Amino acid sequence: MKATDFDLSKDLILDPASGIASFRNSRMVVMDAAALGLLRQNLLEALGLEKTRAFFLRFGYSAGYSDFKQMKKKYTFDTDMDLLASGPVIHSWEGIVSARPGELRFSRETGDFYFTGDWVNSYEAEQYLSFNPVCDSPVCWSLAGYASGWGTAFFERPLLAMESRCVGKGDASCGWLIQPPAEFGDEARPYMEALGPLMG
Fold this sequence. Notes:
7 strands; about 45% helix; alpha+beta; Muramoyl-pentapeptide Carboxypeptidase, domain 2; about 20% strand; three-stranded antiparallel beta sheet
């Protein structure tokens, strides 16, 4: 199957009368961009930058790793690109992220991996950009964690996802790059310190 073949309407149940939202029979908490922004600001004030970043990165990583294992067990995909792209597709209904895959190349024999694309209209980017008109630093920590976990589960070796480009308010899209941690420079150090215990 292709990554775009999912019909998520069968799995998503919204009951306004009870205030319950569920996905595949699992109860969910639904947050809009403003609420997520408030959560992030409160965590930053209470915990500081380093611990807040670690919180979002680890949460995203664990979710991405787990989601990949479930998807691979349940579905058969036409190509590796479809398998890798299916993660953002299954979450697109949440409005959290819309992803456009770019270039993919990898070799399990040599350990080389390179995957690019764009995050578009993510809640995380939207609420960050509402406080910072121009973005020149990584903002989508939970998405970076998710893509890192998803990629690591796919490749069966540690991979790190980081923003390669993040633009200012009005466009709200970030380019991303996924590759082995050693291929990044010093900018990856805070991410690896946060994710290190999960990546082995």
